[in-house]
Amino acid sequence: MTATTYSLHHIHHDDNFGFNADDYSRFKFGDGAVSKDFGTALANGFIKEYLSDNLVTDQIVVISSPYSFIPTATFAMKNWFVYRLNHWLAEKGLPVVQETKVHRTITYKEDYGELNAEQRMSLIGNDQFHIDKAFLAGKTLLFLDDIRITGSHERMIMKMVDAYGLDNDIHMLYFAGLMNSNIHPNVENHLNYHYVKSIFDLDGIIKSSDFCMNTRIVKYILNYSFNGFRVFIQTQTADFVELLYHMALGNGYHTIEAYEQNLNFIRKLLFEPATLERTS
Q1: Any idea which fold 3-192 has?
Q2: pTM attached to this predicted model
Q3: Which 3-state string (H, E, C) describes 235-275?
Q4: Which terminus of the chain has fewer CB atoms gathered within 10 Å of its CB, N or C?
């Protein structure tokens, strides 16, 4: 087994990232156009800087960052990464990509991006990742994530690899990686919220034709202060509100007390609108 790490962008300064910080923030909240740009760029970089000189002739399996029911922002980026990589593989007469999923068992309300390395590992350390070992036999694995800050998620992936006894060649691929240990890990939060300063900044993202629902935007909306949330949610389409509710239930967010008030309002908006009219 060999394991390598590749990042398209290397972050050495907290005010110069090598990519547009507003775009990154929009990507984290479901902007599909940015997801396309990021995924395509990551594939192009990996092809140019690695695959062109280290041809992989085995079957390649691409695996997005672990999730339970709602995909992460990386999932949308992964789609475009796969499209671009498949074009290149087909031109080389090689097998196109297969995909699988890393299942995770724990969901939490904490904002991972604002934590330091120790807090990150403490938060996810009790999580359990699961994957189909038999499906992976004899294949080269590409694990995708959007950013590598402290390596906590990577350590959890490798913990899973050890637990399952995987002997595959593994590549950990990131759109960006923090290379300067003097920069606090909460630089990730700075990037996450560079464009999205309030719930109302989500409106244009959500109403675009290529919006992609993900865990971050669901948690952000459910955790927002009730007065702002109530104004915002009533300006959204019925289709979006219904999808938001389905996603929230699918990830078990109805069991998290901090989300209860906003989620209950969504439920009434969908199924008991008359009760809201009487109380408004």
Answers
A1: Rossmann fold (3.40.50)
A2: 0.92
A3: CCCHHHHHHHHHHHHHCCHHHCHHHHHHHHHHHHHHHCHHH
A4: C
